[in-house]
Amino acid sequence: MNLKRLVVSVFVLSLVMVISPMLHPHAEASMQDYKKTTNIAHRGASGHAPENTIAAFDKAVDMNADYFEVDVQMTKDGQLVLIHDTTVDRTTDRTGSVSDFTLEEIRQLDAGSWFGEAFAGEKIPTLEETLDRYRGKIGVLIELKNPELYPGIEEKVAKALIERNMHRPNNGKMIVQSFNHDSMKMFHHILPEFPLGVLVNSGPITAEQLDNFSAYAEYVNPNKALMDRETVDRIHEYDMKTWPYTVRDQASADYLVGIGVDGISNDFPELFTSPE
After folding, report:
1. Candidates 48, 84, 167, 188; catalytic one
2. CA–CA gap between residue 144 and residue 48 (Å, rounded)
3. pLDDT digits over 183-225, tens only?
4. 188 is catalytic
5. 84: annotated active-site residue
6. Which of 42, 48, 167, 188 is catalytic?
7. Rounded Cα–Cα distance for residues 208 and 190 (Å)
């Protein structure tokens, strides 16, 4: 090998060593790192069963997730139901706004066939029946979805928790979060000791924001695209935890675990059992 070729080879090898960690950000994550990270099944194990249904929640339990996340909205008659969209169009066999249906009417909808024939007839559950079914089995991360559309939803959710003695922070298995930060401030006023999270979908996340969040929340849960090690460290400096959303592939999970997040909201809980 002549000197010129040797110099080129050394340069290429050095370049590969620099670039490789960038191409494979998950390389830092180990199984031990995963064991320290909370596994949150997003809308239940929604990669395997129709989101926000008992089937998805059961699957999350079967797959040993630490929590499952639910989206809470209100019916026409003020009942708390679990559905992500403000309409039933995408995930049921009917159309219309959630708030246009009574509980009795919304319970007649098929919330499973859109996902697969095996789930035909799956129903939209209530928050209360979900809390009763899974208490003591798995944690529940409750998202207040579009609370500005449902005046009084904070009080109703708090009441459902209080009636079941699930409002005490020492149980470590109940958290409420929302993109609507005013709603979380209101919930904090109702239950000052209850753990709350703020969802964030745009950045960067500033020290000023974190100072504000830390007055009423214990979790800052951003879109995964906003996360890097500096952001994680900054959140931790304010004694808050971070559970970014929504992960659907191993590389993203490995990257987030590698930079030190406290939990990951994901559609596939098995990502926690097979890091590369």
Report:
1. 84
2. 23
3. 999 999 999 999 999 999 998 999 999 999 999 999 999 999 9
4. no
5. yes
6. 42
7. 25
